[in-house]
Write a structure and sequence with these properties.
It is a single chain. This protein has 215 residues and is an alpha+beta fold. It has ten helices and seven strands. It has two domains: 75 residues, Winged helix-like DNA-binding domain superfamily/Winged helix DNA-binding domain (Arc Repressor Mutant, subunit A, Orthogonal Bundle); 131 residues, 2-Layer Sandwich (Muramoyl-pentapeptide Carboxypeptidase, domain 2). It has a four-stranded antiparallel sheet, with helices on both faces. The protein has a three-stranded antiparallel sheet with strand order 1-3-2. The protein starts with a helix and ends with a helix.
Length: 215
């Protein structure tokens, strides 16, 4: 039972923080390299995770690129709720009645209402992004924050979307969430990739400098 629980925790970390190396996973959960390899092997065999080559200075020795892991679509679905089919049917029903746009806009407003209290707009942008990440994580989005290229941005990453199937059928859903993030953070943000479009993580870029914020 403990083994299953650890495996689920490993999968959850890969979903939220991937691409992530075995060494980082071992450090996070205080596991031996052998234990991590066992869990990674089982998750790979089940098709829940896949290898991902990490670009950059991470080193496995003698100049070899670091091997990291990301969740596959099957791994994403392993964390999803069973009501997704019903939710998709509901979206189709609303679209047929011409009421989908209003429903999506209302979703954005309700999301903003839920997370706005967690973010202090007078705080530094990095602090705001961290608070937003924590608020979304509490809602099941499996979020993490990473520095963007050049140090001028932060990347808010969502490794899990509780309503991914809805977002796939209704792209406006992601667009409305991005607008809600902008309003809550008080800066213009840009969605670079989404789970709904086949990426292994949703990535939203948040500018840290005034010049970028103005765009």
């Amino acid at each position: 039972m403990a083994t299953d629980t650890t495996r689920e925790r490993v999968l959850g970390l890969i979903v939220s923080a991937g691409p992530i190396t075995a060494a980082t996973i071992a450090e996070q959960f205080e596991l031996t390299p052998a234990a991590v390899r066992r869990h990674l092997s089982a998750l790979t065999d089940d098709g829940l995770i896949a290898d991902h080559e990490v670009a950059g200075p991470i080193d496995r020795g003698r100049g070899r690129p670091a091997k990291a892991f990301v969740a596959t679509p099957e791994g994403q679905r392993a964390l999803k709720s069973a009501y997704s089919d019903v939710a998709q049917d509901a979206m189709e029903f609303l679209k047929a009645r011409g009421e989908l746009a209003a429903f999506v806009a209302d979703h954005g407003a309700r999301l903003e209402n839920k997370i706005s209290g967690a973010v202090d707009k007078t705080a530094p942008v990095a602090t705001r992004v961290g608070a937003l990440s924590d608020a979304l994580a509490a809602m099941g989005y499996a979020t993490s924050v990473r520095p963007g290229p050049g140090g001028h941005t932060l990347q808010l990453c969502q490794g899990h979307c509780p309503v991914q199937e809805i977002a796939q059928a209704t792209p406006e859903w992601c667009e409305e969430e991005t607008k809600a993030f902008s309003r809550v953070l008080g800066v213009h943000v840009q969605r670079l990739s989404t789970l709904a479009q086949g990426a292994h993580v949703c990535t939203t870029t948040v500018p840290l400098t005034p010049a970028l914020q103005e765009g």
